[in-house]
């Protein structure tokens, strides 16, 4: 759904799918989207720039069910090719379907820890989504001695950027430099075909923020997420 001003210029866009994804230039667009939201009562989450998500929630909170989890501040980071820091030359690669079960388990553990729910409760669809992304070359891993020690996947892609998500180092392999080397080398590979890279992170995840900044990412904005049961 689009919002336009009196001159017909687009001032906002919103997607109503499993989650609500919002982008808007002003509060008038958010207010128009809030009225439409009544037709979509079962959304799992609201995601978008913090100032716009906060405004949307201020409008609809009087009738909408309450969130079960709020990520009030999620800094947005971007990486330009010239800012990529030198990192150890680890042997990173796209995941294959032979890696799928390990990638699925790692992804589920990450979601359980960060979001408080286990997607393995609906294992068939969760696993199928990851396998489709692997088949499209969107999952990257660093594996050594038969074990995945770092993984991430590429989400939304545009001419301007590719969004990284699912960044995860299994607990047993943390604090060994794997994430620094692997993220740097994956970023180097992805920047060969993407103008920039981007991601967002919870503001309290100090270790992840330190990793991104070591790699050369810089903070360029702020997101917010509301999760509903």
The structural domain count equals 2
The CATH class name of the largest domain reads Alpha Beta
What is the N-to-C succession of helices and strands?
EEEHEHEEHHEEEHEHE
Number of helices: 6
Shape: globular
Tell me the number of strands: 11
Helix-residue proportion: 25-40%
Report the mean per-residue pLDDT as an integer. Answer: 95
Termini separation comes to 24 Å
Q: Main β-sheet, in a few words?
A: 11 strands, mixed
Please indicate the percent range of residues in DSSP E strands (runs of 2 or more). 25-35%
Rg calc: 19 Å
- Ranges where pLDDT stays below 50 over 5 or more residues in a row are none
CATH homology-level superfamily of the largest domain: Gcn5-related N-acetyltransferase (GNAT)
CATH fold field value of the largest domain = Aminopeptidase
CATH hierarchy: architecture of the largest domain = 3-Layer(aba) Sandwich
- How are the strands ordered across the major sheet? 1-2-3-4-11-5-10-9-8-7-6
Describe this structure in words.
With 229 residues, the protein is α+β, with helices and mostly antiparallel strands. It has 2 domains: 2-65, no CATH class; 81-222, Gcn5-related N-acetyltransferase (GNAT) (Aminopeptidase, 3-Layer(aba) Sandwich), CATH 3.40.630.30. The protein is built from 6 helices and 11 strands. It has helices spanning 27-37, 50-60, 100-115, 123-135, 178-190, 206-215, and strands at 2-4, 10-16, 20-24, 45-49, 69-79, 92-94, 139-144, 147-157, 162-168, 197-200, 218-227. Strands 1-2-3-4-11-5-10-9-8-7-6 form an 11-stranded mixed sheet, sandwiched between helices. A hairpin with a 3-residue loop joins strand 2 and strand 3 (20-24). The radius of gyration is 19 Å and the shape is globular. It starts with a strand and ends with a strand.
């Amino acid at each position: 759904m689009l919002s336009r001003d009196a001159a017909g210029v687009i001032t906002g866009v919103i997607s109503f799918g499993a989650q609500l994804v919002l982008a808007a230039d002003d509060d008038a667009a958010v207010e128009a989207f809030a009225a439409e939201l009544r037709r979509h009562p079962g959304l799992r989450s609201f995601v978008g720039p913090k100032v716009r998500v906060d405004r949307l929630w201020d409008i609809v909170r009087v009738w909408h069910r309450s969130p079960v989890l709020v990520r009030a501040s999620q800094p947005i980071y971007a990486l330009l090719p010239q800012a990529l820091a030198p990192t150890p030359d680890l042997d990173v690669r796209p995941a294959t379907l032979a890696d799928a079960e390990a990638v699925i388990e790692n992804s589920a553990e990450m979601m359980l820890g960060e979001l408080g729910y286990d997607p393995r409760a609906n294992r068939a669809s969760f696993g199928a989504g990851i396998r489709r992304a692997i088949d499209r070359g969107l999952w990257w891993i660093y594996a050594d001695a038969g074990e995945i020690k770092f993984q991430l996947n590429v989400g939304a892609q545009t001419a301007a950027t590719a969004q990284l998500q699912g960044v995860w180092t299994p607990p047993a392999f943390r604090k060994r430099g794997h994430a620094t080397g692997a993220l740097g080398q994956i970023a180097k590979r992805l920047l060969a075909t993407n103008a920039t890279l981007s991601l967002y992170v919870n503001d309290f995840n100090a270790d992840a923020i330190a990793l991104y900044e070591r790699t050369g990412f810089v903070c360029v904005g702020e997101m917010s997420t509301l999760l509903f049961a």
